[in-house]
Design goal:
Radius of gyration of chain B: 13 Å
Largest sheet of chain B: 6 strands, mixed
Radius of gyration of chain A: 14 Å
Distance between the termini of chain A: 33 Å
Number of helices of chain B: 0
Structural class of chain B: mainly beta
Largest sheet of chain A: 7 strands, mixed
Order of helices and strands of chain B: EEEEEEEEEEE
Largest interface: A-B, 24 and 24 residues
Strand content of chain A: over 45%
Order of helices and strands of chain A: EEEEEEEEEEE
Helix content of chain B: under 10%
Oligomer: heterodimer
Number of strands of chain B: 11
Number of helices of chain A: 0
């Protein structure tokens, strides 16, 4: 079974709709991340969380919100989707590598979101 | 904040040739430089990383070199194979930070 799962894998929605993307992990990691991937723009960080009570904005958080329901679950919401949020979204996890040390990030398979 | 530039954006090589992907970073405090490989339809996966206390690291056919003075690091793949075809991302992070800044990616195509 996959260590990091994302649901749904594909989603088509309309402008103005609310949508939630879900991420679950069985790796036991404290740290979870949401990235967006666009052609030619690489991976950009939307939000990240280091534990259930910790939520931090990333580079491109406008138009998005997140919820860390448990250590293993981290959800990304688009309150009112717009076409330029059409992209591939990835969840990732990492362990706490210790003070000042960044560990390997483990990515889920991605959710392809299309906003019409 | 950190800014990572990656070149080239696409790279085509013949099977057996070497491939080199280069990245530059802006923050002199950066000290961790991972490389991720993304195969079609999958999430990125770490293939090699280097920390600032070393200048080169090798793992079989792949190697990463780091020049802290010039603030650039490179991925070298020797004896390329068709299964090396993928998108490769470099990343950097300053000491004490807990997030990565990624480059825009390089699509590597290895032709048989």
């Amino acid at each position: 079974d996959a260590d990091v799962t994302q649901t749904p894998r594909n989603r088509i929605t309309k402008t103005g709709k609310r949508i939630m993307l879900e991420c679950s992990q069985t790796k036991g990691h404290d740290r979870m991340y949401w990235y967006r991937q666009d052609p030619g723009l690489g991976l950009r960080l939307i939000y990240y969380s280091f534990d259930v009570k910790d939520i931090n904005k990333g580079e491109i958080s406008d138009g998005y919100s997140v919820s860390r329901q448990a250590q293993a679950k981290f959800s990304l919401s688009l309150e009112s989707a717009i076409p330029n949020q059409t992209a591939l979204y990835f969840c990732a996890t990492s362990d706490n590598g210790g003070r000042g040390v960044l560990g390997e990030q483990f990515f889920g398979p991605g959710t392809r979101l299309t906003v019409l | 904040g950190e800014n990572v530039e990656q070149h080239p954006s696409t790279l085509s090589v013949q099977e057996g040739d070497s491939a080199v992907i280069k990245c530059t970073y802006s923050d002199s405090a950066s000290n961790y430089f991972p490389w991720y490989k993304q195969e079609l339809g999958k999430g990125p996966q770490l293939i090699i990383d280097i920390r600032s206390n070393v200048g080169e690291k090798k793992d079989q056919r792949i190697a990463v070199t780091l020049n802290k003075t010039a603030k650039h690091f490179s991925l070298h793949i020797t004896e390329t194979q068709p299964e090396d075809s993928a998108v490769y991302f470099c990343a950097a992070t300053p000491s004490g930070y807990s997030t990565l800044t990624f480059g825009k990616g390089t699509m590597l195509l290895v032709s048989p």
